[in-house]
Each structure stands twice: as C-alpha cells, then as structure tokens.
Amino acid sequence: MMKIRDAQVRVLERTRFQQFVLEMMTHLRTHFPEELASLPDWELGEEIEGCLGRAATYGITSRRDCARYLALAACFGWSFDTELKWPAQMLQDPTSSPSVRLERVHERCLQRLDQEATTSAYRRELGL
C-alpha cells in the first residue's frame, strides 16, 4: 500500500491552490478588463491570494463562491470587505451559510451599483 506523507499532501494542495489562482486571474481579466488593466499579473495574483485567505475566514471555500467573492473584490476593491463595515458584518452572520451570506452581499453590491448609476444619470441631466 502506498502512503502519502503530510508534506506531499501540502505540496499537492499548494499546487491546486496556485492553479485556481491562475484560473481566477484569467476569469477576472476576461470579465473585468477595464478594472484590472493597470494591474500586472504578479500583483493580481497577490490580490487574489489575499482575498481567498479572507474569504476562507468567512467560510467561503467552494470554487463557485470564491469566484463570486473575487468578482466583488475586483469590482468594489480588493479590501471591500474590510474597508466597508457592512460586508464584513454580513459575511460573519452566524445564522446563515457562507453561500447565503455571500449572496446577500452580492445583492447589496448590485443595489449600490444601481444607485450610483441613477445618481450619475441625474447629475448629467442637471449638468453637474
């Protein structure tokens, strides 16, 4: 019987994590080209790794939820969950699952985008 040592498992986990980071780099550059245009790959990789570490503290670990969390970070800022008080509060709510908490944050962010677009349109109409 073959035995895999702890060190080997850690290497495999790190390799899998690095592959996911590369996949997310491609995904984010595809879906947020303007927001990420000035960010070099090495810096984007560091931002993604940092975000994934914070996501894990909220219990966000599935590939799908991590991708959604990263999309929010790319759109609203890499530290959106720590710079603003409400995302962290929502993401730490112990009464619901990490996926539900993330969905609530996502919905609130979309509402914020809608409000900003409406305000911007009103300002243009008023010549401001």
UniProtKB/TrEMBL annotation:
This is Transposase. It comes from the Bacteria.
